[in-house]
């Protein structure tokens, strides 16, 4: 495709269009892309933030490799959704102050969390806030854009992708996550080192993905037709004790301190279960008892991300977005590591691509609950998003993953049915919470519900 008339027109509705994280990445990737002619309609509860992002998106036009995407803010969800081909959902469930409570209250009860947005006490309460929101968005999509393809970027991804389906069972939705990219980058480094030249990027690494979001594993790896699993096993064994990073970070780099890891947890999970773990250590550690990794996070080479730092980082991103929207700075349209634009192009063009995504389990992973949202590869094409049969997790690992998947389904069931009494037993059964005596766990749950109560339906506030 060399001419603007060859570009594929696509209408994208962005819910959470004031985003300071995912929206700028999408803008940069659309500017880099030569296949799509996109109109992006930005909807946000904060209309001014959506208007700022529309102005910021327009700044990418002069540097676009293809037809510049067009951006406009919408005052209503219905306006954004009308006629959409693609819907992107990227919202913050609550406020950073709520997230601070998700982390801080469990910490006072002796439970550390590195992220607190997926499982554990933080992920559970975040889901209580968010499930009604995502179900409402699903219903709105059913009313205004029932044939749209829907990408959810919001955590806890497994539960919230499921909530979209509860809101509109016929929805064509998937959850998109970049965590598997971390293992793929390691494999590309291994392949390039063996070749003696930088021949491969993470996009050249093929993996068979199986698990649930942020607790993902791979049992096959290939680069240019070569089986890379033996080389990865050797790499993990060589670095299991010290961990590995491609380049040592600057000790003053706060982002790296709080968001980076040395893959020691990944390598140890491979040792324990015989299968490479794919997600980042900060997420993987939260699926297991705190005594396994979180109680000694520094020893395992990863940090516990303080919400105070996230707030400062968000303020810096807001200032940068405002400067770009005003024209005080120029955009840097380099392509991100995200796969969303490739997925959109495949859906709109019919030229297939394969990505790891989160979809309801219809047999793509044996041994995990039917209907639970699981993460495997899927084929994006004119036929939609078709999951790839991934196989089965190792016998020792499968019960751990299955228990989390079942808990996520039960949580979604309880919230959608307003079954408040079912919530505390599920909360207490999480591996990070289970070691607490019931009375102490109930006290913590009560404190967390009270702290974030404004965002939780009245029918669920008696849950503790």
TrEMBL record:
Keyword set, alphabetical order: Carbohydrate metabolism, Cobalt, Glycosidase, Hydrolase, Iron, Manganese, Metal-binding, NAD, Nickel
Span of domain Glycosyl hydrolase family 4 C-terminal: 209-433
Record-annotated site: Increases basicity of active site Tyr: 117
Protein name according to UniProt: Alpha-galactosidase
GO term, biological process aspect, one: carbohydrate metabolic process
GO MF annotation terms: hydrolase activity, hydrolyzing O-glycosyl compounds; metal ion binding; oxidoreductase activity, acting on the CH-OH group of donors, NAD or NADP as acceptor
Cofactor(s), names only, from the UniProt record: NAD(+); Mn(2+)
UniProt keyword NAD, yes or no: yes
Protein family (similarity comment): Belongs to the glycosyl hydrolase 4 family.
Pfam families for this protein: Glyco_hydro_4 (PF02056), Glyco_hydro_4C (PF11975)
Binding site for substrate: 155
Binding-site residues for Mn(2+), renumbered to this chain: 177, 214
Cofactor note: Binds 1 NAD(+) per subunit.
């Amino acid at each position: 495709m060399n001419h603007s008339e060859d570009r594929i027109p696509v209408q994208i509705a962005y819910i959470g269009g004031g985003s300071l994280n995912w929206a700028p990445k999408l803008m940069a990737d659309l500017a880099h892309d030569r296949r799509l002619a996109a109109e992006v309609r930005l909807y946000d509860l904060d209309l001014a933030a959506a208007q700022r992002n529309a102005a910021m998106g327009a700044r990418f036009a002069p540097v676009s490799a293809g037809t510049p995407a067009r951006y406009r803010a919408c005052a209503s969800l219905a306006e954004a959704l009308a006629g959409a081909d693609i819907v992107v959902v990227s919202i913050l469930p609550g406020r950073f102050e709520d997230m601070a409570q998700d982390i801080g209250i469990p910490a006072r009860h002796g439970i550390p969390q590195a992220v607190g947005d997926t499982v554990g006490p933080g992920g559970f309460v975040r889901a209580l806030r968010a499930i009604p929101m995502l179900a409402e968005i699903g219903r709105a999509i059913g009313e205004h854009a029932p044939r749209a393809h829907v990408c959810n970027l919001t955590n806890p991804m497994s539960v919230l992708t499921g909530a979209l389906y509860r809101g509109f069972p016929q929805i064509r939705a998937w959850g998109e996550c970049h965590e598997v990219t971390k293992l793929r980058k390691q494999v590309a480094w291994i392949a390039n080192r063996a070749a003696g030249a930088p021949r491969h990027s993470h996009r050249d690494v093929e993996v068979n993905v199986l698990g649930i979001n942020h607790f993902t594993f791979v049992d096959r790896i290939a680069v240019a037709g070569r089986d890379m699993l033996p080389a990865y096993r050797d790499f993990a064994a060589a670095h299991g004790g010290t961990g590995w990073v491609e380049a040592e970070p600057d000790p003053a780099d706060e982002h790296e301190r709080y968001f980076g890891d040395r893959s020691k947890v990944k390598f140890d999970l491979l040792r324990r279960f015989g299968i490479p773990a794919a997600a980042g250590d900060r997420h993987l550690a939260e699926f297991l008892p705190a005594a396994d990794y979180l109680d000694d996070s520094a020893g395992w080479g990863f940090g516990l991300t303080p919400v105070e730092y996230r707030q400062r980082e968000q303020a810096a991103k807001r200032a940068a977005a405002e400067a770009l929207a005003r024209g005080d700075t120029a955009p840097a349209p380099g392509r991100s590591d995200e796969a969303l634009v490739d997925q959109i192009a495949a859906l709109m063009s019919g030229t297939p691509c394969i990505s790891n995504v989160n979809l309801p389990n219809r047999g793509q992973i044996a041994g995990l609950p039917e209907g639970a949202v699981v993460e495997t590869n899927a084929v994006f094409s004119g036929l939609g998003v078709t999951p790839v049969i991934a196989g089965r997790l190792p016998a020792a690992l499968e019960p751990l993953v299955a228990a989390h998947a079942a808990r996520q389904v039960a949580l979604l069931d309880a919230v959608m049915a307003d079954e408040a009494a079912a919530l505390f037993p599920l909360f207490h059964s999480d591996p990070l919470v289970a070691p607490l005596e019931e009375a102490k766990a109930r006290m913590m749950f009560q404190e967390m519900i009270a702290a974030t109560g404004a965002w939780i339906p009245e029918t669920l506030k008696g849950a503790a």
